[in-house]
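Justification of computing resources. Each target in the renewal requires a structure prediction run like the one illustrated here; the chain below, 270 residues long, is used simply to show the kind of job we budget for.
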Amino acid sequence: MGRFHRHDDGDPHGHGHGHTDHDHEHDQHGPEHGVGDHSGYATGSERIEVLERIFDENDSTASENRRDLERAGVLAVNLMSSPGAGKTTLLRETLIRLGGRLRPGIVEGDIETSIDADRLAGLGAQIALLNTSNGFGGECHLDAPMVRSALARLDLDALDLLLVENVGNLVCPAEFHVGEHHRAMIYSITEGEEKPLKYPVMFRSADVVLVNKIDLLPHLDFDLDAFHANLRGVNPGAEVIETSARTGAGVDAWCAWLEARHRDHALGKG
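Resulting structure tokens:
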């Protein structure tokens, strides 16, 4: 399923940020209701029908997740990145700094193992592990039904903030709503400044981009200005926070972003 795309271009919400799960219309960019051009396949029309059912079911479940989160007063943020960008290390530093200020929960997504979930244990967060190999087909992303199964293992009434650590992948996670209020993308400068141009759906879907491993900048042949220009080209409205999970640089600013979004959410502003 992950190899098919909902859109030829653009994010699954139809815009980069400020989205809601109650306002999802299928984009009309593709030749058949925005699911891409499958005319090269003899089974093209059947593929489109199946994909539309998949995405419709996912979006319906995402809305259910969103309603449950709303009822409990929980702000949900979907964290996405490529493998090795530093999501788990940054999330660990986030939990340490948020201690006592917000009550966090984690949905930890990986294809296999509990390695990342174990690294986050003991830091005051409720954690629900999702291995996509366990009954979910080994998918390279989390979708709304998967996250729904994880929500059932969390005490939402005891949470203020839910952080969904998605499976490391620069393509598929951007295409599936899980019920989140906001999306954060963690990008490592070791990946190259061209990535917003090569993976525009992911970068366009983010409300905030954390430019991680910034401490390595003196040691890399990396053009930070070019990266910022490329990001602006695909998502000019995205907030950008430069971080280093290793040194702690920018982590307080990221935590402040989360707290501000939580305040807005509590006031009904987002």
